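Ticket #4471: structure output looks truncated?

Reporter: J.K.
Steps to reproduce: submitted the chain below (238 residues) through the standard prediction queue, then opened the result file.
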Amino acid sequence: MIKAMFADEVGKEHLTRNPLIHIKNQKENKPRPEHYTVKEINDFFNVDMKEAYRNAFLALLYTGARYGELANITWQDLDLRNRLVFIRPKSDHALKTSNAERSIPMNDSLFELLNKMQLDKRSDTYPFCSVEGKQLKERKLLEAAKRIGEKAEITSRVFLHKFRHTFATMLIQRRAPVEYVQKLMGHASILETMIYVHVKTEDLHSEVNLLNDIIQTDDADTEQKHEGKIFKLNTKAA
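Returned output as attached by the reporter:
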């Protein structure tokens, strides 16, 4: 901050040189985002819970939406014909960035869930709503998640944003291109998405097999070359 202050003074021509110009900024190593494992996800959803909560948790997992984005999705933001969920700003809810406005394709599971929910709407405004049919409240949904996580015997931290991390991490692990995941997450920079790229090299068998065709070999040519070498050796010997 002090270095930036001096830079500003140089820009205003109050100083001729920034006395801290030689000091390098310290690199910040961000920890990898926490995500649920496949086992934790299955254990979580195997717990008996209220349907409204289950729908909200599934939507967080299948869309990668932030809690605030999910809570403000209305039925008008769903296009079941084209299987899209639109994340849009509302008059009382601004998105985190301009890039956060996006459309997220529905996977088969979410598409089937929403079709079922449409037949028996709990709310005429919000598809993902509270048990009472009102707009979701973060604290109540978080408390429900923690209770369910405890019953599921999940020992890692349980929090709502972890579903978003899980969405991105599992797409990357399943070989989804990182630039596609960036768009689905609504990240302004691909560097934000790269924190989810933590691939284990022992899982990359199919990737190293891409090199199998570098050396072109033909069995017939190989045999002829081999016979030619033998003929030359025999001639030399004679």
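Triage note (M.O.): checked the attachment and the full token line is present. The first strand starts at residue 78 and ends at 79.
Status: closed, working as intended.
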